[in-house]
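Retro notes - structure team

What went well: the batch runner handled both jobs without manual restarts.
What didn't: labels got mixed up in the shared folder, which is why I'm recording both outputs here explicitly, each with its sequence directly above its tokens.

Job 1
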Amino acid sequence: MKVRKSLSKALLFLHIIFFLLIIQAQLYFFCSASETMYYTESLFLPLKTLEISSDSLPRASSNRLPFTHNVTLTVSLSVGTPPQNVTMVLDTGSELSWLQCNTTKMGQPVFYPNRSSTYSPVACSSPTCTTRTQDFSIPASCDSRNLCHAVLSYADASSSEGNLAFDTFNIGGSDFSDTVIFGCMDSGYSSNSEEDSKTTGLIGMNRGSLSFVSQMGFKKFSYCISSSDFSGVLLLGDANFTWLLPLNYTPLIQISTPLPYFDRVAYTVQLEGIKVSDKLLQLPKSVFEPDHTGAGQTMVDSGTQFTFLLGPAYTALTNEFMNQTSRVLRVLEDPNFVFQGAMDLCFRVPINRTSLPQLPSVSLVFRGAEIMVSGDRLIYRVPGQVREMDEIFCFTFGNSDLLAIEAYVIGHHHQQNVWVEFDLEKSRIGFAQLRCDLARQRFGVYH
């Protein structure tokens, strides 16, 4: 994983389970002369999550909790010939898809390359290795067998390494032929071995040349996550449906000159302001714009659970939110308690309270679009934390500065009940408020 690309990836591999079950669906496709596939029909995939019980969450030695996640997006598919079933984290913030191929790890879901007749490693002298890995933060190299070797590094000090390879990916009943390049990883370090036991790898969906969506030639993909039961739908292809609400689009930001802290293949948009209720925070535009090093970009990332803001914006937001909720929420007065390493605004809510009080909405204002976060998406109950007769809830916006993340990251928790469309052809992202459980029914996708 690229270090600068992984500004948000410290938020990924830490205690997460989110199951995306694939049902039977037909995918039509044709191949171009360059072997890239372009799909003319759409593929609908049902989406479901499973939350880890509080008893299984790690305990810290102090009230400063470790940075963890208990929810993420995963997709189930098959790889190889004959097909092997795998579960992969769906990540719009990553490029290279990879599978764990180390068969010596007990209890670890793995892919067995020696059991696949269509598996083919990539030579280090091939153009795939020498030119298509240009966005990797650590350059690809040659191993002792002259195979293309990749090292993916994460901001939480996790890492994974292995060889690039080709193999057949199968999703929804249709073979993707030998056009998928992925990493077959056999070593590395994880900060959460329990999470490793839940998934086989990661499927990269950003704009890099080696991402899954780029290799497959999809012009669009979308997803919608329900806030009620965490079910939803993932759509690969176009969503030209008359019943779908009009999308408000914001352009993707691109730069031509490489900068040390700017991820050029991320889904970067321009955050222009933040509102609490209808009150726009008084912040200069420069707070939301990348500086000369590239630090300060805003990324839409399905691999991150919550949303993280740079210090000045985070401070202004939390101050205004506390001001508007002072009569309905009791702030946790404990400077040593920081949820997930970056959320230091927490509240005490009586255990016997049946519902949360009325809270002011928070709107993220982009160029041409906005996402409004309201209700129980604004505060999150911390599992296993009780003070006297109160449960602890924390504000679902975190401080990027506390994690040494030089970016704004829009996580999937704040994308619930929002149809999110990634339009690669027109270089834009569309948003529309939508009941995602109803969208799943409209598409005829059931669990």
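Job 2
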Amino acid sequence: MSRRAATQISGLLLGQTRGRLLSTTTFRGVITTSGASKIPIPRFTNYEILRTSRVPEVRYWSTMASEVAKEGEQVQAPKLDSNDEKVDDQGGTAIVSSYWGVAPPKISKEDGSPWRWNCFRPWETYKADTSIDVKKHHKADNFMDKFAYWTVQVLKYPTYLFFQRRHMCHAMLLETVAAVPGMVGGMLLHFKSLRRFEHSGGWIKALLEEAENERMHLMTFLELSQPTWYERALVFAVQGVFFNAYFVAYIVSPKLAHRIVGYLEEEAVNSYTEFLIDLEKGLFENKPAPAIAIDYWRLPPNSTLKDVVTVIRADEAHHRDLNHFASDIQCQGHELKEYPAPLGYH
């Protein structure tokens, strides 16, 4: 068959079917083979062909369903299990559709009350070790450590000049940055483990737990204060620059990247210490702790903002030690997988 003849035949076929196969218009007068839906409408398309046809409804089922709803016919909703029901914010019952019968489980607290948080579950909660040394400092002896230390010192001064004593806003910006290194490091270690067909020693999970913990700090502060529009814009700019810079730094030298994070966490500990000092002086209102913080850190019901800042500072001290430890391992010529990651804190 010549190319010209094939082109002509293809054109004829497309001319006859373009109103049906190459568009999302509704089939008119279709009776499905499964019997799940019968839509007797007198017209098929502009062509007076196949007034009643038997075709699979896979391609056009969503379109047909919406068309039926528009014309007032009743479409039977799929049956849901009792697990698909939950209480909404107004106290009513909201139906949550499940995917292939996999419904969200019902979770309760120890006292039998329903668990209200979807961002974390009861087995992810913990009690922070507030006895951890918050004054510990890694002394910069070699060139790499000094470079990491002074890099952090240079970066912190613009932040202090911008926020000054506005600790709540400073903490929110700090957490948007602090949640980046763990995610970047865990992601790169994950890909490394896949490439080399080897275990990570638990460091992937440890770094991802660190990132999630920092994000929970941010979610807690959002319950107490809301950032302004220019602070949100600043987060976009800072996070975009820091993510790419840390990504490159971790690829070039993971031990340098972890050392930088270690010093960043030291500054975070110092920042929260100043926050606590101002709370004790009465410069800030010691508000009641938000419910999300009480459940996440297993705090007493009568906890206050001071208690929340105390446990967050303990978390930052733990992240400080974890990253300095990771850097020390690699500075001694070893790989992270050779030493088990300090899991179980969060």
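One thing worth noting from job 2: Confidence is low (pLDDT under 50) at residues 19-73, 75-84.
We'll revisit the folder naming next retro.
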